[in-house]
Specification:
4-stranded mixed β-sheet, globular, alpha/beta, 16 strands, single chain, 306 residues, 23% helix
Amino acid sequence: MSSSLIENTKASVITHVSELGFFLNQVSDMPSPGQILMVQPTHYSIDYVINPHMEGNEGTVDKKKALQEWGKIRDTFKSNGLKVQTIEGQPGMPDMVFCANQSLPYVDENGNKKVIMSIMRSEHRKNEVPFIEQWYRQNGYQVIYIDPPGIESFEGMGDAIWHNKRRLLWGGYGYRTSSKAYDFISRTYNVPVITLELNNPFFYHLDTCFCILNEDTVLIYPKAFTRDSLDLVQAVFKNIIEADTKAAEQNFACNATSDGTNVVIQKGSNEVKDKLKLLGFNVQEVETGEFIKSGGSVFCMKCVVW
């Protein structure tokens, strides 16, 4: 193995398949988080429009039903052996429940816990970040801010998704996150970042169209990506499950989440469910209809933490 190939498994930003330069098994291991962070939907509502899914849904949230849906998702995570940490939602922050968006946590090779805080694109959501940051400070994380000029936005694990058990980051950009953010993140965490360009406004975060199921398998909505980005996905993953437009856009199937065995997913996407079962996954269907009105589902409502 050449030294340049080894170096490429550390800090590097990859935008084209020709830049990969390494195999997945050459990327160092990363421990599974074992915990997730969730924000209670006490103040969840739809008060404004910042994505196409919200249009026409202002004021339509059934808050009692939303709380029931959220509770079922939390309990499903617990049944899978995950420790669930919860934060109170805050008045005037109806989207804080989508807590994948405000941060990108990491644990380095020496066991040090770090977190890069987000720069939310919408003014409506900027005040959420300090409340999430407070939890990290109370739980022993080194808090890092993105400060280079020219980086206008970065929306955490909505767009930046860790590869299963590897120190490899997938970074979506095009709507909510500046591509320039990944240079800073790659250097700060000393990890390679494979960037994927999003080109469909209904899939404004990477987690709406890209769900890593295990080290070798991913669930995607292909029409959300550019050709170069699809080439990168196909070069790394052995198994690619494709969701159709109805499953991805209406049921948010790709906003599922997986621990490598159990896949928690919005109910109703039977074709996707059948494909998951054929590959040996345990499919756990939940209802997230009140949150889909706002453009989010299972993955959006949790952030993995160490």
